[in-house]
């Protein structure tokens, strides 16, 4: 590649208050509690588009963080991702007031049927003119499983087996069922769609039977851009096969580097260009006109962190209730896998530090488990370029401390510096989200993507 | 009541082309094939709001009309409700450009989970500021069942048993789980929500177990306005219990009158005010400045009807493939229930007429199975008032011949006449959809509605 490495910015949000920053809803500037108002979303989308963001990434859970203190009360009291709304429903309002911002929407396939979900994403891809991504998750909260009719949660690896087949079904519906020229709108002959250019997918599998045709004509991207955010080994394998954007989390770029390398290695093993996976690492930027102003901002924000809220989040993510432990006793690897994986992220990423429950809570307090960078425009841009270089990431998933304040600060102070350095384009690179990632002309999946094989079934029945 | 009877106008549409008017997508003025473009929906919503419509009703199927000629080809070729998009996703874009229009969205509960669907409608009710209705359906297409993972469709009456419990679960999530003052946003004490004002519903039933709390704080209407459109005896019983708006179809008001009377009788039996159910009958209005212009309009529109498309629709609705019958042989009551119920609508509603397949297709061709009125403003307004008087209906579900042309014609010619007669208000009667139906102040379910009993569980734990 020539020139400096292009960096992608995502905004990380959720249909709730204080998303990754527990307690910060109390900050006087924070508007996250207005998430029920469409204006929150349309204003945010326009801000991000102005700032050259690639996309807005909307997370989701369909349950409660009820591990910490063994019940939902801490989450309810602190407003930790509850109340929480559906993530798919503000997209059209945002799409109507923007031209190129992408929308990465989280939907857990564990509780969906591929035939209906494929139609939902096709409809969103039409309405956004090709700017939608599906962040594929398999739910991690037991409380979701209990309320959605499963006695207990489907085991983790089994969930990914279901996910693999779910994706195959969806790919067939998106890529194979309708030819690009199937819809004729031939008013003379009275042919809306040529039946010879539409075919049933005839899928019979272990988990799903979908014999019929897709319900929608091809949307600009056909398959929505595929995002993935799971960090487990099975999640990484899923990402290596399916993901076009992967969201990762690490306190340091050095800790992240081997994981990104492993992801790219596995992507290559899947027969894909390792650059087909764009890696976004979570980062919270606290900035201002100068380093000094940024530090003042950080000190101000820190006063609103809820440590109880942070441990409530951590309980949901890790399955680990730290309320039973001494807040100042360092965590050690333990016998159970739950505790091992919960601790691993911190200890392996930053092995020189001792992580106590309190230290974890303080770290999570602003921007969740990702890193935080505090500084003026040059400091932040330097740090972003360092992450890209050390960890080989393609961009950042920017969590907020307060919203839209954190994003407003980034757009005002950091974006001009990134554009000055030539790492953030001033002009859009294409109309669709996939073109933002891969370049103009690449609205459809790349040939190395598993959905592409189904595209070859198209046009076989040309008349 | 004093003064003339207030009439409600609904626009009937679907995320597809030529909704109830097969072949009319070929008309040069028709824009229904642009349904993938958000502008189609935002322009339509603004037009309807200007015309004083109560709501836009978006129908849906998650399958194909594949009964006629024993396959999907006729539907695909004629564009009969395929391609078809998801009905929930344009709502926020429309809500953002309107202030009081309601949105009645069809979702089949047969393939949904109440915990997740309750959240979707709560989110829509927040985003619309209380203007959403759920049109509750239990799917009727075998092709939907096959592709959504059911070997064959759940039997009709069983679907309604599931539906009754589904509604109970959803009502509890909407009405009982969160107190109105649960969300405190108390920045001093750091309390987002008072846990004592949020309670798990603890539902254990035959079809669903939902132990937890609802995921969303109360929306303006809490329970979305409930619409229902099934005409079977079990469907009528469901409507009498749950529906606030009921959509019916009949070629004549005289044929409809006993059905409406029976619905109101059953509503009374359920302990509800018979006036709590607002009945909308399907009507297609072909109008112009004068009767003469309207007749010319009708003659022009009729040239584009697809009789094959009409019989394809009829096959899906009735389960009856009329392709095997002589197009000019009158239909008779037959031994099978499918044929009896399919024929019944026409023969009982208009017993003096002989209904052949061709006559049915011609009738369906413009506006589906509902009545068509052709005339200038006074003729149409007279006919509407006659329907209200003879059949005791509260308003009309207006299908289009072409869109937005049919609605534009109604707003231009008929709405001023209805307003002149005082049967259509010039000013909004309230902020929410339910207030449009019941009057200002009635944003929440009326006390006679089955959801209301769950409201009594609120506030019991006041602190």
TrEMBL record, chains A, B:
The keyword Oxidoreductase appears for this protein: yes
Record-given protein name: LLM class flavin-dependent oxidoreductase
Pfam families in the cross-refs: Bac_luciferase
Domain of life according to the entry: Bacteria
Stored InterPro entries: Diverse_substr_monoxygenases (IPR051260), Luciferase-like_dom (IPR011251), Luciferase-like_sf (IPR036661), NTA_MOA (IPR016215)
GO molecular function: oxidoreductase activity
Enzyme class: oxidoreductase
Record-listed E.C. numbers: 1.-.-.-
Domain Luciferase-like: 27-389
Region (Disordered): 444-463
Keyword Oxidoreductase annotated: yes
Keywords in alphabetical order: Flavoprotein, FMN, Monooxygenase, Oxidoreductase
Family as reported in the entry's similarity comment: Belongs to the NtaA/SnaA/DszA monooxygenase family.
């Amino acid at each position: 590649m020539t020139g400096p490495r292009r960096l992608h910015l995502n905004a990380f949000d959720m249909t709730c208050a204080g998303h990754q920053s527990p307690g910060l809803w109390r900050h006087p500037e924070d508007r996250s509690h207005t998430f029920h108002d469409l204006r929150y979303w349309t204003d945010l989308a326009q801000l991000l588009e102005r700032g050259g963001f690639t996309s807005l990434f909307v997370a989701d859970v369909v349950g409660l963080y009820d591990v910490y203190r063994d019940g939902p009360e801490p989450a309810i009291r602190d407003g930790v991702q509850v109340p929480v709304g559906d993530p798919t429903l503000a997209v059209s309002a945002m799409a109507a007031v923007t031209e190129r911002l992408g929308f990465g929407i989280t939907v857990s396939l564990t509780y969906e049927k591929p035939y209906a979900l494929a139609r939902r994403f096709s409809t969103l891809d039409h309405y956004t003119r090709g700017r939608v991504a599906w962040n594929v998750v398999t739910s991690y909260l037991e409380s979701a499983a209990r309320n959605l009719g499963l006695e207990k949660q489907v085991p983790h690896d089994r969930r990914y087996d279901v996910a693999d087949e779910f994706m195959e079904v969806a790919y067939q519906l998106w890529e194979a069922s309708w030819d690009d020229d199937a819809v004729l709108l031939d008013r003379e002959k009275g042919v809306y769609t040529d039946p010879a250019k539409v075919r049933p997918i005839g899928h019979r599998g272990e988990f799903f039977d979908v014999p019929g045709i897709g319900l929608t004509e091809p949307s600009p991207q056909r398959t929505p851009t595929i995002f993935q955010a799971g960090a487990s080994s099975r999640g990484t394998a899923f990402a290596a096969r399916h993901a076009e954007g992967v969201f990762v989390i690490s306190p340091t770029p050095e800790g992240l580097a081997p994981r990104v390398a492993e992801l790219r290695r596995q992507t290559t093993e899947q027969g894909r260009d390792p650059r087909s996976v764009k890696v976004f690492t979570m980062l919270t930027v606290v900035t201002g006109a100068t380093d000094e102003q940024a530090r003042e901002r950080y000190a101000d924000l820190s006063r609103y962190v809820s440590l109880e809220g942070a441990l409530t989040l951590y309980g949901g993510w890790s399955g680990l209730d730290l309320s039973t432990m001494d807040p100042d006793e360092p965590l050690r690897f333990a016998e159970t896998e739950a505790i091992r994986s919960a601790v691993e992220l911190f200890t392996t990423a930053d092995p020189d530090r001792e992580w106590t429950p309190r230290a974890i809570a303080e770290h999570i307090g602003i921007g969740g488990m990702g890193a935080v960078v505090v500084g003026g425009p040059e400091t932040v841009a330097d740090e972003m370029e360092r992450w890209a270089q050390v960890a080989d990431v393609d961009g950042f998933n920017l969590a907020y401390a307060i919203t839209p304040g954190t994003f407003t600060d980034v757009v005002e102070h950091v974006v001009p510096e990134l554009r000055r350095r030539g790492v953030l384009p001033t002009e859009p690179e294409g109309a669709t989200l996939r073109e933002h990632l891969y370049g103009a002309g690449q609205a459809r999946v790349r040939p190395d993507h598993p959905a592409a094989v189904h595209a070859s079934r198209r046009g076989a029945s040309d008349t």
